[in-house]
Specification:
Elements lengths: L1 H11 L4 E6 L24 H13 L2 E7 L9 H10 L3 E6 L7 H9 L4 E5 L5 H8 L4 H14 L3 E7 L8 H10 L4 E5 L20 H17 L7 H11 L14 E4 L4 E3 L9 E2 L19 H7 L8 H15 L1
């Protein structure tokens, strides 16, 4: 209930925010649509500064943090970061690409630190294709076991899927596989190339044409009726389609205002896509968050959450989002 009250308080004070915090570029996967794993200098955030950062973010109205990477589970103190989120009444999500990392020790640490949500990447319902995507052997079987263990520990799970060249014609099968594995939720990511100097996204696996991507987003909207586990707001899916059709979207992105990104150098950015830094995160003040609506990309995490903070037209998606948080995650 403390997290719920904090969300309501910061929402009423008009300063509720969400951020992604990349705590390391270390990674054991070799994804076709990301080259972070190729970076030679391996970096992980200093634990003490990271703990200070989370506490500082709470004073800025941040009530939802996704710990990402690389692989956040490779940070030796990931559980301390999750625990600090819990202490600051912040909803925590941990994003993992490699289910091999869910050892008994790490699972127990996630339970002790009271992680709210664990997101695991799932690319295909076929083992062969899933392996080619990230070069992780037996990834579907390992993911199923991880979801079972997390569920046994009362930790909610979300399948993180990406529309890409090797699954765009089998989305129903992909979502059904996620449900069969026991995931509580499914999120759909939209393919994107990044301008970020550190968070390098792109590759041969996301060369879908605009027309193909629009068709798939329309399919996802239909599949939401069949799979209520899909959390992407319809308003956001429609918004991305408008963007891809070179129209003016109803909901511009609020990256750098309501949602933002922190890299493993503790630099804050409006999002993972843009290369313009907002400065060191510990020096951020409330006045640094400027409302500068943007339509330069279709990055899902930032576009999806942005639909919740745009006045009266956001009432319907906001009510739906709050229902998700209050009824299921906490």
């Amino acid at each position: 209930m403390a997290k719920q009250l904090s969300i309501i308080k910061d929402l009423l004070r008009n300063r509720l925010r969400l951020c992604e915090f990349a705590v390391t570029n270390m990674c054991t996967a070799q994804c076709q649509f990301c080259s972070i794993w190729k970076q030679k200098d391996k970096i992980r955030v200093d634990t003490e500064k990271a703990l200070q950062t989370i506490s500082h973010l709470a004073t800025l109205g941040v009530r939802f943090i996704t710990l990402t990477g690389g692989e956040p589970l490779l940070h030796p103190d990931f559980d301390k970061l999750v625990e600090r989120c819990t202490q600051e009444d912040i909803i925590s999500a941990v994003l993992a690409a490699d289910s091999r990392l869910f050892t008994e020790r790490r699972l127990d640490a996630l339970e002790r630190s009271k992680a709210d949500l664990v997101c695991i990447s799932v690319d295909s319902h076929e083992e062969r294709i899933a392996y080619e995507s990230r070069k992780i052997p037996d990834t579907l079987a390992r993911t199923r076991r991880a979801v079972e263990e997390l569920s046994r520990r009362k930790i909610k799970t979300m399948a993180s899927t990406l529309i890409c060249d090797f699954n765009y014609n089998a989305l129903r099968e992909l979502f059904q596989s996620c449900v069969d594995m026991g995931f509580d939720f499914i999120t759909v990511n939209y393919p994107e190339f990044s301008q970020s100097p550190v968070y390098t996204l792109g590759g041969d696996a996301i060369t879908l044409s605009k027309e193909h991507l629009i068709d798939r987003l329309m399919e996802v909207m239909e599949l939401k009726k069949e799979f209520p586990q899909i959390v992407n707001p319809v308003n956001s899916l429609e918004n991305i389609i408008s963007y891809l059709e070179d129209e003016t979207p109803e909901f511009p992105c609020l990256g750098g205002y309501r949602v933002f990104f922190i890299d493993w150098f503790f630099q804050a950015y409006p999002c993972m896509h843009l290369g313009r830094s907002m400065g060191d995160v510990l020096e951020l003040k409330l006045s640094d968050f400027k409302k500068e609506p943007c339509n330069q990309c279709n990055m899902s995490w930032y576009r999806d959450f942005s639909v919740y903070f745009q006045g009266l037209k956001s009432i319907r998606p906001l009510l739906s989002g709050l229902q998700f948080v209050f009824s299921d995650v906490l």
